[in-house]
Model the fold of this input.
Amino acid sequence: MNRRAAIAVAALLIAGGALASMGKQDRTVDLSSAREIWADFLRDADQIGLVATRMPSGEEVRLGAQLAAGVSQWAAQDPNDTSYVSAVGQSLAPQLRRKDIPYEFHVIESPSINAFALPGGQIYVLRGMMDFLETEAELAAILGHEMSHVDLRHCVERYQYQHALKRAGVGVGGAGHLLDMARMLIAMGYGQYQELEADAEGNRIAIEAGYDPDAAETVFNRLAQTMGEALRPPASTPAGEIAGSMEEALRDYFRTHPRTPERVARMHSMTTSHQELRGRQFFVGRANYRNRTTRSASAPKAEFRTY
Amino acid sequence: MTEFLVFVLFIICAMQYRKLRRVRRDVDELRSENRQIEKLTARVYALECAAPHVPETPTAPLVQRVAIAEEPPPPIVEPQPEPAYQAPPVLPEPEPKPPPPVEPPPPPVPAGPSWRERIASGVASQEWEAMVGGNWLNKLGVLILIIGIALLLGYSFTKVGPAGRVAIALAVSGGMLAAGVAVERRSVYRVFARGLIGGGWAGLYFTAYAMYAVDAARIIANPWIASILLTAVAAGMILHSLKYKSQTVTGLAYFIAFATLVITPVNTFSFVALVPLTASLLYLAHRFEWFEMALFGVFATYGACIARGDSGSPLASSQAIIAVYWLLFEGFTILRASRPKAFSLPERCIFPLNTVGVLALSVPKWNHVARHHSWAFLAACAVVFIAGAAARYRLRRPDEATPLPERMANGGYEGPITIAAGLATGAVWLKATTVWINFGWLVEAELLFLAGRWLGQAYPQRLSAALFGLATLKLAAQDAPANSHEWWPVGLFSTALMYLNRWLRRTAKYFSYGAAVPLLLVAGYESPTLWVGAAWFLIGLALFEFGLRKSLVEYRLQAYGFVVFALCALAINDFGAPLTAKLRWAPVLVAVAAAYVMALRAKRIPEGVEAKYAPVALAWAATFSAVLFVWLAAPTKFIGTAWIALALLMLELGLRGIPNCFRWQSYPVASIGWAYVLVTVVIDVNKGMGTATRLALGGAALLSYALCARGFRTEAYHRVAASLAGTAFAATLMWMALPDPVVAVGWALLGIALMQFTGPNTRVLTVQADLMGAATFGRLFFANFVNTGSTGGISHRLLTVAPVIASEYYAWFERRQSKVGRLYLYAAPILAVTLLRFELGRVLTVVGWAAFTLLLYWIGRKRDDLDFRLQSYALALICFWRSWTTNFYVPESFAGVPGRVATGAFVVSALYIAQALAPRASDARLKLDRYARQLFSVLASALVALMLYYEVSGAVLTVAWGVQAALLMAAGFWARDRVLRLSGLLLFLNCILKLFFYDLRHLDTISRIFSFIVLGAVMVGVSWVYTRFRKQIERYL
Done:
């Protein structure tokens, strides 16, 4: 009996190993699985407090307006691009789940290639990012990403503890500050996975709005090349594998965003796993973007591609 | 003149010195005797004091005692407990203690006067006076008289002419001589007379000398006449001296005669005159056995020649004269040798001095006159000495019982034959060149050996051996290093001769040892560099086999020597053989074969020390050679693997006893193989290594396991080391060769395989299997759980982790009796939970976990296994937590159903099913296990309540909870499950609390009323049920 079981297990191992040796290979060797499990744990532990301090949508919108007022003081806005961005963004809003959040879009003059969201639907795109993007589909992907942060409550959760303490009459300094710092440390453990969620959710929103599914992958690829980010080359020795993995895990723990190549890989995996997208027409909008013309105003056939 | 006077004074002083030594010796003897006398006196005194009165017995006279002292002590005939003195038995033993203190003991009085007193008394006696007056005065008087004559001659330089002076000297000298002869007849004047005679002859001699050599007295102009005259005087002295039959006197006369020939002006005369002089001296020495004089003759003869120096005479005549000298003394010693009596010390010195003298005179002459023919002289000398040796052999048969030095000293043939051999050797050296010298020496040596064999004498054979040794030494030091390739025939010839001699003489083992040296040299110098070791091994094999078959240890010992040299040659020459050399391993292979054959054959060595160590040593030689062979023959990447294979082969041979010691010699060979692989491959392993490296590593792993398998009958540490090495290599190979996600699968497979071979003797394999299991577990977290690869739509994660989980369960099943088995049992579900997390995604994870919880509990119930049940309880708690903290907030929906509801419902269902599987009553020891049913039920019910909380709000929530409570109670009744009913009741209580503490404050009027009414109705309904079916309910409660 034991011998038969051993043979069966061995056959299973051999079959599994043989099949895994074929097909598309992924040579990544790191501790991301352990990090992700730890992030799960931290996130689940943090949920109790977040649920207890949940802010209603109205309060969130008010908070967002306050924060937006502060932002508008240190950077000027471009009204032309802002209206274009706003049009694109509003086309994505129906795909979101939280219908009670009014989204406002801003393009501010800053050379940095970045975009960010504030609670209550305040979405900011910097001039550097506007210049970096090439198509409307890419803009939709970026806007979708930021809007997902709001939709999934990532933005407001950062302010919930502070807000709750304020409401409870506890000062921001002292114990409140300590609590906030503790919360930040915990959030650091799973913040990157919120970014990945926003990537996935934002891509879903953009695709469901009819934009090119590959746009997000394209823009992140270009971003990785521009920033000089690359995946750690595979280690050639066992010791190198372990050392490299541990070093990377330690370094990545303090990153706010995952590595761009990893985001690209996940997005690629996500889009390719959805077979129902194949054969459909999606909007790219290169000329539209260049001319700052929305899809609703002009959508020539050349701006579409079959996935 | 002055020199002559000084010379005469010197002679007189020498004679007096000799007398003084004799007196001193007498004095020492007297002192010793006096000490003995003192001791004896003290003992006698002590005895007299201690013993009763005993009449004195006369003691032995001193004269007799002295006589006893002079004679050698007689051997003890019968043992006596007491010393020789005749002490009566009643006397106590003598004690060194002083006599009783009653009477102070007087100091012991010596029996006789001390040596000072004797000399003092002698001074006062007549003896001293007589000695000085009769003897010393006489000699001093003669000396003074001679000096006076000399002064007279000198004084009379201006008074008389040369003839007058000579006449005066002759008259005085002749007068003294005549007077001495005349008064000699009377014994009273004998001493006086001899002084006169000696002075007379001295005066005559000096006068004869002065007649030619001193200007003031020269009356002879012809040197020949002068020489003859001087010689005549000397001859007269000699003849006269014979009358006294005194070696000293005659010796003195001869001394003067030799001195005459030294100072004579004519060289030729001097050399020629030495012949009869020497001959007469030797005749007298032989006749009267005056051997000291004969020895003096050697000194005098050759000394005179040396003193005169080389006069430039032709070589032939010089050599002839010298030959005559030598012949005279040689003849003397040969004649002496014919007598059986042992040689005295002077006699023993004659032969060597004669030899030195002739060579000292001849060799410089030859070198000066005919250097290129010196060899002929040496050869001729050798022949002559051989003749002398033959004569001695004939006259004095050697007695083997007598030690060799003694025989040589007593005129045996050994001395001359040795000289002859040396001279012949020198002759060959001078005449021949290069290897012909060796050839000549070999012939000479062989002739010596054969002569010794023919005569039955060992000495010539030993001499021959020494000569063989010399030839061999030259071969080794000069000919072979010259690298001319011309010497090897002589070398082989030398070997053949020595082996022949060994065969001819069974006891001459040194010949066989000597024969091995040229053989070693020939093989070493004439073989190609890489083949030197092999050649020596083959020779060693031949010698060993011969020694084994003939039971001759010496040949086997030579074989061992060859083996040692061969190993050194292999290490020096072959180890660093250039890679470009063709078949550079071939000679080493030959060496291996030869060494192996020797190692096998060594089993036949007879019992003894050799039998104990030789087989092992030879086996080591074979092992070393084999290791070197692998080093040279195997490709670089495969060297380590090949060494391990060699170790396996050696182990097999050792287990079969061919030979036994290979068994444990395989361990170090395997160790270096492992070390090589470890250093060259494992430590620097990287995925870029080629196929060759992988093959080498795989081979090393398999062979190591084979070593472990065969090591069942060997030591444990060998098995441990072999299996560890095999596992390390196999694991490394898998890391290197397999894709990253498949490495863990390979390691798991290896662990399974190791477990299959575990047995009572191989617990180490179990440990290694566990280590592989741990490594596999860790590896999955590095390379498998987040792997995005896929094959046919199936993720590589699933394809690799699932089989590993199965292997972990299998490992638990195999090891369930041990503590480590439980680790496997907990590792498997951890991997399964992690797999579900990554495979299903963040949202659907809890669905998978819930299903797994159910499965674990079912298995736990089926097998009655507490571990499975505990795992299910833990997972149930995790599912509850996960659902609440994650799934209840996910935005996803499935087929229009919110993700919270879809996933939550599944979890709730799984928990309720688990509850249904749990027994109602349990006698489990663990509380958690005893209340499993309640746990599942509470978790499920709480989850439903939470779901309702997130789905509905306000008054509807209160109603929803109320409905849930009612349903729980109904289900509780139906299923006869108390916990459901209690859960319902608890929920009702919660509703009531919410109603009063929240709804009343926060809800609007309509909602408030709605919630109150509905909840109230539900509660009333439930209460009616309890009342209506009280009796039935009581049965359940």
Summary: The CA atoms of residues 223 and 541 of chain B lie 79 Å apart. The beta strands of chain B are 790-791, 794-795, 893-894, 897-898. Chain B has 39 helices and four strands.
